[in-house]
Amino acid sequence: MTTTRPAIVASGLRKRYGDKLALDGLDLEVAEGSVLGLLGPNGAGKTTAVSILTTLLRPDGGRAEVAGFDVATQAAQVRTRIGLTGQTDAIDEILTGRQNLVMFGRLHHLSPRAARKRADELLEQFGLTEAADRQAKGYSGGMKRRLDLAVSFVTAPKVLFLDEPTTGQDPRNRMEVWSVVRTLVAGGTTVLLTTHYLDEADQLADRISVVDRGRVIADGTPNELKSRLGASQVDLVLRDERQLDEATEIVARVSGATPDVDRERRRVSAPVHDRVASLTDVLAGLQAAAVAVEDVALRQPTLDDVFMQLTGTRAESDDPAADTTEVAA
């Protein structure tokens, strides 16, 4: 029986910036033709890990291979087999879409004819043919991200690193990028995705690794991670913030779990395994204690719930600059 070597494998990666330990024995494995979502709070080590795997940084310890080559000792071979799309577009907005792709083709040592041919292929693949000869500054946000992805595919890389690819994009543009990523993966590309949008990871990732303080603290499929919290989640929104502690105690007693409390939204939530019985018991307890409820719901756990349980914080969907400062430290 033949076995397929992982497209990305990292073992015990360590990286320190002065007194800060950015990576503390990070382990990762990504199967060929799959998407791994790398999640974690700002400063958890995600960007440092991507920088090492793309040969932009050298690790202080451990080792990693990408596409079968060691990132430290075979960096040149790794670079010819990967693509990287960061948080900001790498395109020149003065140039047209076609000119951008031809320019990057030439930078990758393609002949003028080969660069033009590759540009035409990528314009069609990424749905940009009609806008090929327009200046990129006139593109929508989604079109710019698609062009940026196309640029990273000039050399048809086997492995693509997407570092916060839809930061600042509106929902329509994000879905355009998701569609392109799905098409690439269907064609055999391996993707490592870092994102602060947990719905994005839920939509795209085959597996998810949650990173905190420089190491992986949980790994599994999205459904496996969500199943850790139970089959359902009970959510309460109270009318009076002063009753939050009392409501939290009732929910904890019924669920047998430590509730998540959001004082700003007057919300209490906790996982439950017996949907109807648990909800009935919670409501009965609240009524007996005269706790006024504005809203109550039963829902399936989300990756945000998993993230909160594992890291003690909600995922940030704004500027992830705190994580990127690791590289410059």
From TrEMBL:
Name of this chain's protein: ATP-binding cassette domain-containing protein
Domain of life: Bacteria
Topology versus the membrane: Peripheral membrane protein
Organism: Conexibacter stalactiti
A Pfam family recorded for this sequence: ABC_tran
Subcellular localization(s) per the UniProt record: Cell membrane
GO molecular function: ATP binding
InterPro entries in the cross-refs: AAA+_ATPase, ABC_transporter-like_ATP-bd, ABC_transporter-like_CS, ABC_transporter_ATP-binding, DrrA, DrrA1/2-like_C, P-loop_NTPase
Keywords: Antibiotic resistance, ATP-binding, Cell membrane, Membrane, Nucleotide-binding, Translocase, Transport
Family: Belongs to the ABC transporter superfamily. Drug exporter-1 (DrugE1) (TC 3.A.1.105) family.
